[in-house]
Amino acid sequence: MEIDLFDISIFDYTYVYKYMFWLYLIIPILIFWYLRRENLVGSFERINLSSLDLFEKKSFNGIAFVRHLNFLVFLVGLSLVILALARPHDDTDIEAYKKKNIEGIDIVLAMDVSGSMLAEDFKPNRLEAAKKVAMDFIAERPSDRIGLVLYEGEAYTKVPLTTDHNLLLNAFEDVQTGMVTQGTAIGVGLVTAINRLETSDAKSKVIILLTDGVNNSGDVDPITAAQIAKEYGVRVYTIGIGQEGMAPFPVQTLFGTQMQKMPVEIDEELLHDIAEITGTKYFRAKNQTELEGIYDEIDALEKSKVRVLEFKTDPPEKYYAVLIWALIFIVTSRIISNTVLKSIP
Predict the structure, then answer these.
(1) What number does CATH give the domain 103-310?
(2) How many Å apart are CA 275 and CA 199, to the nearest integer?
(3) 3-state SS record for 81-95
(4) How far apart are CA 234 and CA 217, in angstroms?
(5) Where exactly does CATH 3.40.50.410 map onto the chain?
(6) From start to end of 152-297, where are the E strands?
(7) 20 to 30 Å CA-CA from 313: which of 117, 152, 207, 217?
(8) Dist CA 72 CA 75 (whole Å)
(9) Residues of the chain with confidence (pLDDT) below 70
């Protein structure tokens, strides 16, 4: 622990116990008491003198000067004690401490945005429901770096790993289907997410892969991608989204967009295998409530690791230098009182 005794930024600090400043009311009371004791204040009476000669050659009283100076030294020491009791903190140091000691989790959300995500078994559809729940999840994890990968027949990084969650949340506004080739390339989406974590130095690296279909595109086998994730120490939570049986899909016809019932096909065996290979779980969300519960469960599973790291040491204090100076002034005052000002009976 480094203590800078000549740090002059004390007035830029924030204080934990601001109510301690009320103790400064003691200072004017002590000053008034001292002035009365030294007969420096009081009532003035008229004195009749025949001459002003007594006032012309007033000699300097060195002992009185030292006594007054010693009282001032004591007051400075007392003031610094009160300042130390308020527990000053330097906000910039606190932020540096957090970055150094909170080892957050790097998370990549790999989201299927193929055309089938427009099915309306979720309201208003699967894609919008998945976006909303993911945004709520992000808002609950302020200390983590989070990225966003979107995939259909191809995959691309929408937002790389970042702690700027406002940027990330804004990016969800223009997430839509049909931005790349059609299809569902689960393997390519997973590998793209792994690439975002490849150089991560985080203690914990996580991918949340969401899809509503089967792997029918791309040149990367999803199981191979899962094995790569395992090699890099990346855990992949998989989520299948969609109700069982039939679901309403928007279909373009000669008469415009019409809703037609189509079978829900999710390769749950594949998603379960990916999760098992990387040491996590597969979840099935048949409605939005279940989807919210899944993200809550993942949040709880991963957040416990962050808390252990976040509170492993106490936050830095900034009152040490103030307290040292307070002791210097008070001890100096006592030394003067017991040497220069010591009276012998």
Answers:
(1) 3.40.50.410
(2) 22
(3) HHHHHCCEECHHHHH
(4) 23
(5) 103-310
(6) 155-162, 204-211, 234-241, 246-253, 256-263, 282-285
(7) 207
(8) 5
(9) 1-12, 41-61, 90-103, 303-318, 343-345
